[in-house]
Specification:
The complex is a heterodimer of chains A (325) and B (393). Chain A is an alpha/beta fold. Chain A has two domains: 183 residues, Thiamin diphosphate (ThDP)-binding fold, Pyr/PP domains (Rossmann fold); 127 residues, Rossmann fold, CATH 3.40.50.920. Chain A is built from twelve helices and 14 strands. A seven-stranded mixed β-sheet of chain A has the order 3-2-4-5-7-6-12, sandwiched between helices. In chain A, strands 9-11-10-13-14 form a five-stranded mixed β-sheet, sandwiched between helices. A two-stranded antiparallel sheet of chain A has the order 1-8. The N and C termini of chain B lie far apart (77 Å). Chain B folds into two domains: 333 residues, Rossmann fold, CATH 3.40.50.970; 35 residues. In chain B, 43% of the residues lie in helices and 8% in strands. Classes of the chains: A alpha/beta (325), B alpha/beta (393). At the A-B interface, helix 11 and helix 12 of A face helix 5 and helix 14 of B. Chain A: InterPro entries: THDP-binding, Transketo_C/PFOR_II, Transketolase-like_Pyr-bd, Transketolase_C.
Chain lengths: 325, 393
């Protein structure tokens, strides 16, 4: 057992995947000598060499587009997009090429590419460094989208994503990289990758979160318990496909659901989650499913980002509104 | 090794690449003022032609002042970041000559598309440095009016602005302000970017559009040798300026630490554009003396030897040496500039603290030309929510 941060968990997971499979390559801007701007690939180039940990030219479409070619050649590229807001030059390659290759080839071609994207806000950065683009990818058939929320999941989920024969957008809550530590048991059996998980049991309402907002939801549940309210918290973990069975089970018990994400509310993941809950749990619901997220504006200047991002108070406010409905 | 039919081995033409980088920029480097402060001549570019000796000296003293004050903006902002007054800062240390040379070659009607590091060009265009600090403090995302200064907002997504610059130049063509022969009317655009950006698709597409339409744009690349941790060899195997030829327009490599040469070359490139002769690529060969930004630690990926070698090419010291050696500026002049820099530093230190945080509700402003009903509803809901805390604490 060792105490690790999310950054360390991801680093160890990448290392393990590279040790286990010589076809795993890491590529991106500054991932080699520097170890990435967040140090997630720290030490990998030193130990695995420049052929397997590749500092790329500064060109995101090039990074993803060449990863397609490497995958066609039998490699398993793990590419890093330095910040969420810089993924868009690669968007065409991701949605038109990566996502459709299996379908077009009628199953003859695998695209085992992992596209790692540090996402979300709260680090006081300038624009394009704090965004939550997950819905733009979850909307695209053919790619899978997951978000880790804690150090242990970071360690396991990155390995599982690399082992997956479908392309995976792997979202890492950058605010959490160095925030908390947890005990890693490398001998444990991890949950499957495409499963959501109840992370706190409760009976009055269900909070649904992923990535950076899992911590927010857990804090809200803790605060609510002081007021005699029992909130269940589910970490969705997989955004496409969604794993809704634990969500339905929970909402049928609590009758109240609140979805929390940093992304804009309009057509965010919460919209899909709310629609599915209303389809499956209609007679169990005692209130409409509520969504708490970033406002439908561009990400704000950093000095007011904490007001823009959903926080404990805004989550509890939504819980109040749901319970008072 | 050569392969028949494919011409000479590129390594013979351009050097061995990875380990063969010429620190002096190679023989093609246009230089008019050496690192030691000696004026040298160049067959195609010159500084001061047609000017009186006094006007020329006055201009060079002006460059010295611009570079000194720009460096003070940079060091002051770096310190303010360390003190928590700024969230981050992108340093220009070492690139003062490239920016002042380019910035002073502009006419009022010319238009600038900067990266996020063009603090010296912003200075030349009259943007208050405090407005630059606002962005890096995180109170706004660029508060100046681009049309007032002919200086676009800083662009953070690497290279995106080169296409905007090209489109703006195409607009100038259509407005009839290119090639009229009237120096007060003919205009051009300058697009700033770095060596890293040269790898981006957008930049290469900008080259193609500009060449195709003969757009009046100068692609001004500050090759500061580093894209965060990646050396120039990761972006190109040939000197960057030589890429221009493949796109169908001329390129030139200028000593970006030589303000006289940068001014002369940029002015000539802008004149080509204004005259209707189309785009030019200027590679200002320089060095990023500081970190990529204040969050970066360059000791992890580069040698201090390299930095020390470039310190000897300091853009400001060589101008100072020239002015002193030739009796063109006395101690009073240098003292006055130092005093002005101190005043500027004090103004920035005081002013940055007055850059107030915006209201949380301001985030709903300017999303659309007119507030949409659903966004208005969201804003009202948030305002009521914020009001619910009044008196609660």
């Amino acid at each position: 057992m060792s105490k690790i941060t999310l950054a360390k968990g991801l680093n160890m997971g990448l290392r393990k995947a590279m040790e286990d499979d010589p076809k795993v390559l890491v590529m991106g801007e500054d991932v080699g000598k520097l170890g990435g701007v967040f140090r997630i690939t720290d030490g990998l180039q030193k130990d695995f060499g420049e052929d397997r940990v590749i500092d790329s030219p500064l060109a995101e479409s090039g990074i993803v587009g060449t990863a397609v070619g490497l995958a066609l050649r039998g490699y398993r590229p793990v590419v890093e997009i330095q910040f969420d807001g810089f993924v868009y030059p690669a968007y065409d390659q991701i949605v038109c090429q990566v996502a459709k290759m299996r379908f077009r080839s009628m199953g003859k071609i695998d695209m085992p590419i992992v596209i790692r994207i540090p996402f979300g806000g709260g680090i006081g950065a300038v624009e394009h460094h704090s965004e939550s683009p997950e819905a733009q990818f979850a909307h695209t058939p053919g790619i899978k989208v997951v978000a880790c929320s804690n150090p242990i999941d970071g360690y396991w989920m990155i390995q599982q994503a690399i082992a997956c024969n479908d392309p995976v957008i792997f979202l890492e809550p950058k605010r959490q990289y160095h925030a908390d530590k947890a005990d890693l048991d490398e001998g444990a059996t991890p949950d499957p990758l495409f499963r959501s998980r109840v992370v706190r049991r409760g009976s009055d309402a269900t909070l649904l979160a992923y990535g950076p907002t899992v911590k927010t939801a857990l804090k809200a549940a803790e605060a609510a318990s002081g007021e005699g309210r029992s909130l269940e918290v589910i970490d969705l973990r997989t955004l496409s496909p969604l794993d809704m069975a634990p969500v339905y089970e929970s909402v049928r018990r609590t009758g109240h659901a609140v979805v929390v994400h940093e992304a804009h509310v309009n057509l965010g993941l919460g919209s899909e989650v709310a629609a599915r809950i209303s389809e499956e749990c209609f007679y169990s619901l005692e209130a409409p499913v509520l969504r708490v997220g970033g406002f439908d504006t561009p990400y704000p200047p950093s000095r007011i980002e904490e007001e823009w991002l959903p926080d404990l108070d805004r989550v509890l406010d939504a819980v109040d509104r749901s319970l008072a409905f | 090794m050569t392969h028949a039919g494919f011409g000479p081995d590129l390594a013979e033409v351009f050097g061995p690449g990875q380990h063969g980088r010429p620190h002096d920029g190679g023989p093609e480097l246009v230089q008019l003022l050496t690192p030691e402060g000696e004026r040298v001549s160049h067959p195609e570019f010159s500084f001061g032609d047609g000017m009186s000796a006094e006007d020329e000296a006055e201009m060079i003293r002006g460059f010295f002042r611009d570079m000194t004050l720009t460096r003070r903006i940079d060091t002051e902002a770096t310190a303010l970041q360390r003190h928590g007054e700024l969230g981050i800062w992108a340093q220009l240390l070492g690139q003062e000559a490239a920016q002042i040379g380019a910035g002073r070659a502009l006419r009022p009607q010319d238009y600038v598309f900067p990266t996020y590091r063009e603090h010296g060009v912003a200075w030349c265009k009259g943007v208050d440095p405090l407005e630059l600090l606002g962005l890096y403090r995180g109170v706004d995302q660029g508060s100046w009016d681009p049309a007032k200064y002919n200086f676009h907002l800083y662009t953070i997504v690497i290279g995106a602005q080169t296409l905007h610059a090209t489109g703006y130049a195409m607009g100038m063509q259509r407005d009839g302000v290119v090639g009229t022969g009237d120096p007060d009317r003919d205009a051009a655009v300058i697009a700033h970017f770095g060596d890293g950006a040269s790898s981006q698709g957008d930049v290469n597409e900008a080259f193609i559009f500009a060449a195709s339409y003969n757009a009046p744009v100068v692609f001004f690349c500050q090759n500061n040798q580093w894209a965060i941790s990646e050396p120039i060899e990761r972006q190109t195997r040939i000197p960057l300026y030589q890429r221009a030829l493949g796109f169908g327009f001329p390129g030139v490599r200028v000593d970006g630490n030589d303000v006289l040469a940068t001014y002369a070359v940029t002015q000539a490139a802008l004149n080509r554009a204004r005259d209707g002769q189309g785009p030019t690529f200027v590679e200002a060969y320089t060095y990023r003396m500081g970190a990529h930004t204040t969050t970066d630690d360059p000791t992890r990926y580069r040698l201090s030897d390299d930095v020390e070698r470039w310190r000897l090419k300091d853009p400001i010291e060589r101008v100072k040496a020239y002015l002193q050696r030739n009796g063109l500026a006395d101690q009073d002049f240098f003292d006055a500039i130092a005093g002005e820099a101190d005043d500027l530093g004090a103004r920035l230190r005081a002013g940055v603290q007055e850059l107030a945080d915006p209201s949380p509700l301001s985030v709903f402003d300017h999303v659309y030309a007119e507030m949409t009903p659903e966004l208005q509803e969201q804003r009202d809901g948030y305002a009521a929510y914020l009001d619910s805390f009044e008196g609660a604490h």
